[in-house]
Amino acid sequence: MYRSHTCGELRSSNIGEKVTLSGWIQTIRDKGNIAWIDLRDRYGITQLVAEQGTVDDSIFEQIKTFGREFVIQVEGEVIERYSKNPEMETGDIEVRMEKITLLNASKVPPFTIEDETDGGEELRMQYRYLDLRRNPVKDKLKLRHKVSLETRKYLDSVDFMEVETPYLIKSTPEGARDFVVPSRMNPGEFYALPQSPQTFKQLLMVSGYDKYYQIVKCFRDEDLRADRQPEFTQIDCEMAFVDQEDILNTFEGLVKHLFREVRGIEFEGNFPRMDYAEAMEKYGSDKPDLRFGMEFVNLNSGAQGKGFNVFDSAEIVLGINAKGCAEYTRKQLDKLTDWVKRPQIGAKGLVYVKCNEDGTFKSSVDKFYSQEDLKEWADLAGAEKGDLLLVLSGDLDATRKQMNELRLHMGDELGLRNPNEFKPVWIMDFPLLEWDEETERYHAMHHPFTSPKKEDLDLIATDPGKVRANAYDLAMNGVELGGGSIRIHDKDLQARMFELLGFSDEEAKAQFGFLMDAFQYGAPPHGGLAFGFDRLCATMSGTDSIRDFIAFPKNNSGRDVMIDAPAPLDGQQLEELSIASVVKES
Amino acid sequence: MYRSHTCGELRSSNIGEKVTLSGWIQTIRDKGNIAWIDLRDRYGITQLVAEQGTVDDSIFEQIKTFGREFVIQVEGEVIERYSKNPEMETGDIEVRMEKITLLNASKVPPFTIEDETDGGEELRMQYRYLDLRRNPVKDKLKLRHKVSLETRKYLDSVDFMEVETPYLIKSTPEGARDFVVPSRMNPGEFYALPQSPQTFKQLLMVSGYDKYYQIVKCFRDEDLRADRQPEFTQIDCEMAFVDQEDILNTFEGLVKHLFREVRGIEFEGNFPRMDYAEAMEKYGSDKPDLRFGMEFVNLNSGAQGKGFNVFDSAEIVLGINAKGCAEYTRKQLDKLTDWVKRPQIGAKGLVYVKCNEDGTFKSSVDKFYSQEDLKEWADLAGAEKGDLLLVLSGDLDATRKQMNELRLHMGDELGLRNPNEFKPVWIMDFPLLEWDEETERYHAMHHPFTSPKKEDLDLIATDPGKVRANAYDLAMNGVELGGGSIRIHDKDLQARMFELLGFSDEEAKAQFGFLMDAFQYGAPPHGGLAFGFDRLCATMSGTDSIRDFIAFPKNNSGRDVMIDAPAPLDGQQLEELSIASVVKES
After folding, report:
1. CA–CA distance from B150 to each of B222, B232, B395, B423 (Å)?
2. What's the pTM value of the predicted model, to 2 decimals?
């Protein structure tokens, strides 16, 4: 038996007991006649003590040979601590060491195993197994475990069935790139790893499984941004014989359950809902952060036709009101202007209007606009004395995107994005299609199985871009937690959709033939939703980065630097797989 | 709202209620003035009725247009059934149809959606989404869901943490073949899909996560046998600061919990344990079926030295006692002989000894053995009047394997393998190494991280083949449910192991460098176990075939015939991945 208790378990009620603990040495303090060891395991830290006269002297000799991260087993008696530590759960007691067994030595770690470490990102990723010992990382993985468990508990309580779908499937040219897997047994042929179990979960509805879920790895071979991983986890769900309302209620219930059980947070009432169109108009984003207002104001009426060519030639002039920022200095405003002009944001410039305390206005476009004009803008934006209007203009889509970034940036600057506040919102009625300039055709905004809204069906023939879909996202704090749609279950409508998306019959059949076949044998009305599990965990923790919620993440080149993967294969392995490596000179 | 109740829910207490049901038409019986529909969903079947005079005539017209597997929605009143059906949970009631809405039509399915279907294996796999509607398949997936849920409940209750390990990892040349994934971002380099999360779970122990589990897909590119799948699911577990006894107790607890919660079966006392050596001696198998005896008997003493060259030149002469089979006819014995001579078994022949009711013996080797000799055999085997001794001989290993097959075959023949009886046994003390004739070196029987038994350490230098490992399997009814070992956590012992296995320092470093590095930073004593999840579910259901416990299985060529994967890729996709397809003419 290696231990009678964990290092997070002993309390004053255990005083007098003989115990055995095992763990890692966090710190040693050796004062010559008295020595302490902080012993750490997954559950906490317990202080061990050896005082001359009360223990065998050999223990002091032994301790001198130990260092940080050594693994030891200690037998001893729980005693009351002289100076208690109320910060520690085990802070009332310590263990008087009677016997120490060295279980394993440790080299000096390349960075300190502390909450605040001296190790940089790269070093910590290379020694991820040591990084995982640190509390901030451990706590994130514990939260992930709890979210996963509570997700299953909730879904099980409302009769969902977990069904595992295959990982070795078929590549589809639509959407993001697939990772593929050569088949040795079928030379020249390849499996693909699933980007999501979309078609399989729809097949399960055809099969009558009516409430399906899975917490499942998905794969996308994309050029990685900081918050993307080539493999990521989804809570994937589908329901049959339901309408949109049933789905929203079910998964609103899930999110409420998770926040209650994992974070102790209770949401009052129903989550608010907002049309996609409204979200874009007010926030320039389909995942608005509603922890603060600062809604967009259309300034076209007040800003155009006054001779300022930049605004006159713009499709839209948008303003936001930065409350209490009239005192911003020239330097601060220049910095903001530089910020919006960075290529990542892409604005051409930034116009400001200071609403001075004396009732006057000071703007960067005073040459073109009278005090009355500026007052009109301020009124439109609800700006009061002491406020600062920030104005961007240009094409509708681009300006909304830029203003969304600026709004979030100002929210950060003004401390309006409290990491412990959570503001969910359902974004409803997404467009069915989006126009792709490059290929000059419509693409499905969600996927080709998303159903159009009944009342918009006639628009399919006349104005396809205006057709709204039975599609919805759950956004929270500026993050998309999940999204889904009611699917098409009628094969004629599905055929019309494929036609609209420019699929020939052959293409549709080659890619989705089995699903279209399945739909001929009694497909029930169905719909579903998928949550990004890594991102859900990060959002619930009030952080942006998903990487630390993944035990063994990959870097931005898709590499696992710890195991050094990917790596070349030997020739024989390639030959068996009937493939050759064809690397171009670069 | 598509339904107020499911098709498995209504009871006589609902009589008089107006309800809405949705589902698939299982059958229609139309007698002209009265018509019944059996409506099916995931939860059961409810009988619907329309009687002339009590409903609008148009309903009869509507029903005439319906066929099997049409999806309909029905509104009506729950009424008492005239002739109740006690076999059905909803058999006390029926629903008088008032309004029917056709939700979707169905083509005539290619096979009947019944418990006993007329569809062959291949057809059912091609239309797996229809096969999944059948109760026998649905019940298996329901059981799988429940086993998964109860596994998590149990492991969570004893503080295990689920940690997801990566799917895109590094290929290792040891063991079975890897499936590989070309990396587009790292041309010429490949990921591998994990055969198991073995190294990652050991790293998690180094990281201090002390109780890890995961229900996880694993991948092996093997030539498939009937009961193998290229992707399969494992319950993968690892613990630190434990010895073998802790691990066995923990997972014996899990198996007992699963049988209790899922099957309502209680095991009395501890699972029996048997040394590997004893299992091989008595049953010729490391996964003996203990539902019946028929243990092997060594007949060397009685069978050798009597001039029968076949036995004299054999390393071993083994017998089993087939109780009550003395009456086997010539034809039956010939059939048995043919059976053991099939290439899958590979025996050269079969010797029998009938223990006649009159106390005499009749054998196929009467020429060489006296009645006294044969009596000696019978006594050794505990055979009585009316029994039949079956005898095989040859090399030790081969003969044991053949006799194991024959024993199981006779168990089947004699009805001794009751699918509702479950006999677990821990097989202990596996050999650490096995000699590979082809490469003329030792291979790790389990894997290179399995620890040798302390008391056998000295044998490593003198007689490596004799070294026993701290390795254990849980067998049940002739099936290996799972297995594991206590790992090596000492880097010197690990280095000695690699040397013994013929790894050069470079090879060991290239393959397992990160794990060996990790072991230098305070690796705790640890060990673990993995269950084959698909097989566990099959065994718990009393069946052999794992295929129906997998929603979308692959066939013996590794193909998913429903989605037609694997498939060729287009040239552009290959080019982006820096690979070429090199298919040899066959």
Report:
1. 31, 19, 45, 21
2. 0.95
